[in-house]
Design goal:
alpha/beta; six-stranded parallel sheet; Rossmann fold; about 450 residues; 16 helices; about 20% strand
Length: about 450
């Protein structure tokens, strides 16, 4: 598909959402998105258009930082608009730049101004404030990052507006639920599911407008990530390869790390560096793989890897994503020993969700020699790890991931009748990804 055709499809998706919401008055519209597709830009555009039509709009997101960033974007792109931030009573850190821009930040719903305009808040604050806000107080409710919100948390918000638009990334980490969920699986209401999934199940006739392209990931990455983690959401890359070329200033020495970097310099955007098989009994992570992650990041800097046409990458341009905090801490220590400070971000997928860097080093969650758990096989975790990069991602781990997946024995009886078998879905996604990497020659073995 040509760049012109991709842009045409993207514009058509936005126009379709605007038609459904503003012209047709659809009560529910759902927009699933691949990573880096510009979903927040879509939310901005719909919010601004609805405000200019004189509507009263409520915009919700899971975290306070997301709401602040959204307000900043609205102020920069669509000023002037009447915007208020409904802030949690216990928060005393409302950003100074938003205060300076004149954004009111009432702590309670009765302090909100009435009439046309935009109110931005977190889902949790709105759940607490719903009785004070009252049914039908808004014409339009927009939920950004909606796949991070449970249906149970969204439910009290649905009465606040006549229309609801939910937008989010359909393939990444599900909402955090701090209680046992098995008892909900076969019930009428899946209150623990991501809100859009349950809305689509309960309202199969609701219009669904998928976003067709990612602007973050190159097509080479899409060819691996989409079949594994987005089987119901076909999409392509809108990023031009000529604008995302990676080069190494210094030559390699033939090591596994150098060979993997050379693959990236040759046009690959996803590859793995694998240590020989070795079981580490009694611990949740492999210290040598944590050390390998630091060595990969250090070698990228040593070889002067460049984003062609832009700059030589620094530590700030590289990120390490590790499923386990202990392993990430070990990687941080190894980076410090190499003189690399905290400008190189090391954190878990939960923190990385929504962020990006030119280069990512991702530690694979499957540790050969250990029994695979539901945590290891959770597909959204790996999806986040492999979709944060603008140039390329190097996976680090042990050889034998494919064998460990093949040997995994899954107990299909360990779930409620009619419940979604999340562990099998994750196993299938992992197997699809690893098979494609292997077939493409992207597994570099030490």
């Amino acid at each position: 598909m040509t760049a012109t055709a991709i842009e045409s499809h993207s514009r058509a998706a936005l126009e379709r959402v605007l038609e459904l919401v503003l012209r047709d008055g659809e009560p529910l519209v759902i927009v699933p998105s691949p990573p880096g597709a510009g979903k927040t830009s879509l939310v901005e555009a719909v919010t601004a258009a609805a405000a200019h039509h004189g509507l009263r709009i409520l915009v919700a997101a899971p975290r306070a930082e997301q709401t602040y960033d959204f307000i900043r974007r609205l102020l920069a792109d669509y000023q002037p608009l009447p915007i208020e931030a409904l802030v949690a009573s216990k928060r005393d850190d409302f950003p100074d730049d938003l205060s300076a821009a004149g954004v009111p930040d009432p702590r309670q719903a009765p302090g909100l101004a009435g009439g046309a305009g935009i109110v931005v808040s977190t889902v949790d604050k709105l759940v607490d404030s719903a009785p004070d806000i009252g049914s039908g107080a808004f014409q339009l409710l927009i939920v950004d990052e909606a796949w991070q919100v449970t249906y149970g948390n969204l439910l009290p918000l649905l009465t606040l507006a006549d229309q609801v638009l939910v937008v989010g990334d359909a393939g990444q980490l599900p909402p955090l639920v701090r209680s046992e969920t098995h008892r909900f699986e076969a019930r009428e209401h899946h209150v623990h599911w991501p809100a859009p999934e349950e809305l689509m199940r309960r309202h199969p006739g609701a219009p669904v407008v998928p976003l067709p392209a990612t602007r973050r990931l190159l097509q080479d990455t899409v060819d691996f990530v989409q079949p594994a983690f987005y089987p119901r959401l076909p999409f392509v890359s809108a990023a031009a390869p000529a604008d995302r070329m990676l080069r190494a200033t210094a030559g390699g020495m033939g090591t596994a790390i150098d060979r993997a970097i050379d693959l990236l310099a040759g046009g690959a955007t996803l590859a793995a560096v694998l240590l020989p098989p070795h079981a580490h009994a009694g611990i949740e992570y492999d210290p040598e793989v944590a050390e390998l992650a630091a060595a990969v990041a250090h070698r990228l800097l040593e070889r002067g890897v460049r984003w062609e046409g832009q700059r030589t990458l620094t530590a700030e341009d590289i990120g390490c994503v590790d499923p386990h905090r202990d392993s990430g801490t070990a990687t941080r220590r190894a980076l410090s020993a190499r003189g690399i400070g905290h400008e190189l971000m090391v954190s878990t997928p939960e923190i990385w969700q929504g962020l990006q860097r030119p280069m990512i080093v991702a530690r694979h969650p499957v540790l050969p020699g250990h029994r695979l758990s539901a945590f290891d096989l959770q597909p959204g975790r790996v999806c986040v790890q492999l979709s944060r990069h603008q140039l390329a991602c190097l996976i680090v781990g042990r050889d034998g991931v494919g064998d460990a997946l093949d040997a995994h024995q899954h107990d299909v009886s360990a779930r409620a009748s009619e419940a979604v078998d999340a562990e099998f879905v994750g196993w299938r996604a992992h197997r699809e990804l690893w098979s494609r990497l292997d077939a493409a020659g992207r597994l570099v073995r030490a």
